[in-house]
Write a structure and sequence with these properties.
With 57 residues, the chain is mainly α. It contains 2 helices and no strands.
């Protein structure tokens, strides 16, 4: 692996995806997941607004 790339078989990637997807979906369907996602959205929107309208100090 001298070039820094991994040679992961597609079947392993798919297996991992099948295991993780239901857990990720359940998290974002939960109240805690929804709240965390909303906080992340608010932070992202604040950053975008700051980039579009920089405040002079």
């Amino acid at each position: 692996m001298p070039d820094g790339k991994f040679n992961i078989p597609q079947s392993e990637i798919e297996s991992l995806s099948r295991m993780l997807l239901p857990k990720i979906q359940a998290f974002y369907a939960s109240e805690d997941g929804k709240a965390q996602y909303q906080r992340w959205l608010d932070e992202e929107n604040a950053e975008c607004n700051n980039k579009e309208n920089p405040q002079e100090k």
